[in-house]
Specification:
- This protein is α/β, with parallel strands linked by helices.
- It is built from seven helices and 16 strands.
- The chain binds zinc ion (3 copies).
Length: about 290
C-alpha cells in the first residue's frame, strides 16, 4: 500500500528564518528557505495522519487546508514536536472528534507535566480532548474512530456521544516504528508502506535497517555540516542514505547553517556523485508532496 507524505515543516527547532538573524538564508526570498518546525502529513490507507505537532501546528493545518486528523504520531517529547498540541481544540470543536495521539510512555509523561490541564479529571471547559495510545518499537495499528462524536455543552465541556444511525466502518493501517537515538534520548521514526519518516536522530542501530528495505522515500534529519550531539551531521545523513538505499532521500529539520535552497541542491548533487550514492538526496521544503 502506497502512502503520500506532505512536508508541513522542514526546519530545525527555531525554524527558518530565525528571529533576529540577518544571514543570507534567513533573508532569502525563496519560499523553500522558509521552514516551519518539522512535521509531516501522511495520507495512508484512507486515513490522514500527522507526525508531530510543534509550535507551528496551527499555521500548518491552515496552510494545508486540513480539517480532520485520524491520528497524531509523536516522535519524541521536544517542544518543537509537541508545542502545538493545545491547538487541536479547533478539531475537537469543528470536527467533533477527540484527537488520537500515539506516543511512547516517556512522551506521555512529558505531556502530563506540560499539559496538566488536559489530563485533569474535571477539565476547564474547552481544554483539548486527547485519547493517548501508548506505543513502543513494535508495529502498531492506527484505527479511525467512527463510533462517537464530541458534543459541546456550554459551560461544562465535551461529552462523548455515540454516532446517530449506522456507524461507518473504521479504517485501520499498520505502521512500523523505527527506533533511533537523539543523543541519549530514544525517539521513533515511522514507516508507512513505501515511505519512512525519520527525524531528530543522531544514531540508528543496524538492526533497524531491515525495517527500511525497499523504500521509495526516506526522510533523514540533519542540522549541520559538523558533528552534533543529537542530530546527524550532513556526512552522517548521506552515509545513512547510502545504507538505507531508498530511491529518494529527503533531508529535513534543516537549519540556516546550510546554503540557500538552490545552492544546497547543487552541492548535494555533487556530493552524491562523489560518494556514488544510489539514492537521490535533496533538501525537503515546506509544502513538498512525495508519494
Ligand atoms: Zn526537533
Ligand atoms: Zn540565519
Ligand atoms: Zn528533538
Amino acid at each position: 500500500m502506497k502512502a503520500q507524505l506532505t512536508f508541513l515543516g522542514t526546519g530545525t527547532s527555531q525554524g527558518v528564518p530565525i528571529i533576529g538573524c540577518t544571514c543570507a538564508v534567513c533573508r532569502s526570498r525563496d519560499e523553500r528557505d522558509k521552514r516551519f518546525r518539522s512535521s509531516a502529513l501522511v495520507r495512508y490507507g484512507g486515513m490522514t495522519i500527522l507526525v508531530d505537532a510543534g509550535p507551528d501546528f496551527r499555521s500548518q493545518m491552515l496552510r494545508a487546508g486540513v480539517g480532520h486528523l485520524d491520528a497524531i504520531l509523536l516522535t519524541h517529547n521536544h517542544k518543537d514536536h509537541t508545542g502545538g498540541l493545545d491547538d487541536v481544540r479547533s478539531l475537537n470543536y469543528i470536527d467533533r472528534k477527540a484527537v488520537e495521539i500515539y506516543c511512547e510512555a516517556p512522551v506521555l509523561d512529558t505531556l502530563r507535566r506540560e499539559y496538566a490541564y488536559a489530563f485533569e479529571r474535571v477539565k476547564y471547559p474547552g481544554a483539548p480532548e486527547w485519547n493517548v495510545h501508548l506505543i513502543d518499537e513494535k508495529p502498531f495499528t492506527v484505527r479511525s474512530n467512527e463510533g462517537y462524536v464530541l458534543e459541546w455543552v456550554h459551560d461544562v465541556g465535551y461529552r462523548y456521544v455515540p454516532v446517530e444511525g449506522p456507524v461507518p466502518e473504521s479504517k485501520s493501517v499498520e505502521i512500523i516504528p523505527i527506533r533511533g537515538w537523539h543523543g541519549t534520548m530514544p525517539v521513533l521514526g515511522f514507516r508507512f508502506g513505501n515511505i519512512a519518516y525519520i527525524t531528530d536522530m543522531s544514531r540508528l542501530e543496524d538492526d533497524q535497517l531491515d525495517k527500511l528495505k525497499g523504500l521509495d522515500h526516506v526522510t533523514l534529519n540533519t542540522v549541520s555540516y559538523h558533528p552534533h550531539h543529537s542530530h546527524f551531521s550532513l556526512d552522517e545523513a548521506l552515509a545513512l542514505a547510502g545504507r538505507i538505499g531508498a530511491r529518494h532521500t529527503w533531508l529535513t529539520h534543516l537549519s540556516h547553517t546550510f546554503p540557500v535552497y538552490a545552492q544546497f541542491c547543487d552541492e548535494l548533487a555533487t556530493r552524491c556523485a562523489q560518494l556514488g550514492l544510489g539514492s537521490t538526496v535533496l533538501p525537503a521544503y515546506d509544502g513538498l508532496v512525495i508519494a
